[in-house]
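User: I'm writing a tutorial on reading structure tokens. Could you give me a worked example: one chain, its sequence, then its tokens, then a sentence or two explaining what the tokens reveal?
Assistant: Sure. Here is the example chain.
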Amino acid sequence: MNKPVCSRNLILMLGLAGAIAQAFSLSHTLITDNGLRFDFFITASLIACIIVLLALASILTRPLENLLVVIYPMAALTVILSALVPAEGLSHEYDPGLDLHIASSMIAYAFFTLALVQALLLSRQNWQLKHHKPSALTKALPPLMTMEKLLFELIWVGLIFLTIGLGSGFFFVENLFVQHLIHKTILSILAWFIFATLLVGHYRFGWRSRTAVRWTIGGFVVLMLSFFGTKLVLEYILHRA
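And here are its predicted structure tokens:
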């Protein structure tokens, strides 16, 4: 029994060390003399770092270790890309209200990313169990009911932070519906309704398994388009900060 515990602790410690190193690296690119620079790849690396830290914290009370199989490589990729691709965004000074908007939005993205990975694992587990083809991964996962419960817990937390992000955006972001923000705003609101509908469907009508996975993937795609899609177009196609 000691060996699995030691292996688990080693994996968690390596992840924590990697996240700390990633945060230290980001401190030299994110923070500038003119304020914060939320470049596309710098932002992706920052959110990946937040995802790792949230996953590690969640693992202390929830059986989410299998998420690390996807999260660790993703975080490593964002570090490499942020180091290789020249920054396109400009630095800005932000007031506390905007800080709340940015921070809560990033945490929401992080939780919904964890929910996406959880949904994909749940889908794979459900398929293998139905076809009586359990793999080593399926055997290592918690029971199906536990996997579903964890998925909805992640969505709940993500929706709370997304609500804070949208609410603070309406209060503190000037001209939220100007041309270069209108797509981000509308898509973010649409993502909110998708995840809220999923939660209502689950608790009111018993939506589970494949339905929950599809709605989670759909909401995640819309949310990522609202942020990363907008930033990609503005910075690398239109060359606007």
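What the tokens reveal: The beta strands are 31-32, 35-37, 91-92. The radius of gyration is 19 Å.
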